[in-house]
Amino acid sequence: MIRVLLADDQSLVRAGFRALLDAQPDIEVVGEAADGDEALRKVRELRPDVVLMDIRMPLLDGLAATRRITEDEALTEVKVVMLTTFELDEYVFEAIRSGASGFLVKDTEPDELLRAVRAVVAGDALLSPGVTRRLIAEFAARSKEPAAAAELARLTEREREVMALVGIGLSNEEIARRLVVSPLTAKTHVSRTMVKLGARDRAQLVVLAYESGLVRPGWLG
């Protein structure tokens, strides 16, 4: 059972998400929060698998709440998915840099929301690939010039290749087709790369790909 916490200052948004998620046999909404402070308290109390976190909330915004969650060693198993009103929200890239595992626009299709919650728990795919690529391109273009990371020396040539493909937003299936390997092999390469670099999840691996200079803005395939 996937346990979800909803954090949004709009009660109608929370009610809509709850109705959809609670109708699934493998998902349970264990709590709700109307601001960032309440979200932090509920996360520490309930230890959900996933937090659907609105970026803009009173008292403590979603970005600050996400940073506190991901920096808490006792909450390493909690995945945060940011909720945005617009596809190109100015805080989304910073949210992923802060440890969020992905993001969704609030008007996403129900099936996409369900797929996203399950995917982020599995650590198997970055959310909303099409939107992901546009956002990464937009904000990576604004970021400072990346410096080569010594950590990349730990990777094999194939792992660097896989990391670059993750960085441009490809799923495991797309990576498998690009490299002519099985999806399981692609997933194994991604997992090993994350372990070697100490990446919390796939979203952080994307950020590291840009920050290390392995991938540059405009390389979307």
UniProtKB/TrEMBL annotation:
Coiled coil: none annotated. The keyword Transcription applies. This is DNA-binding response regulator. GO terms for biological process: phosphorelay signal transduction system; regulation of DNA-templated transcription. SMART domains: HTH_LUXR (SM00421), REC (SM00448). Residues 148-213 form the HTH luxR-type domain. Residues 3-121 form the Response regulatory domain. Pfam families: GerE, Response_reg. PANTHER family: TRANSCRIPTIONAL REGULATORY PROTEIN NARL-RELATED, TWO-COMPONENT RESPONSE REGULATOR. Keywords: DNA-binding, Phosphoprotein, Transcription, Transcription regulation. It comes from Streptomyces aurantiogriseus. One of its GO terms (molecular function) is DNA binding. The modification 4-aspartylphosphate is found at D54. It comes from the Bacteria.
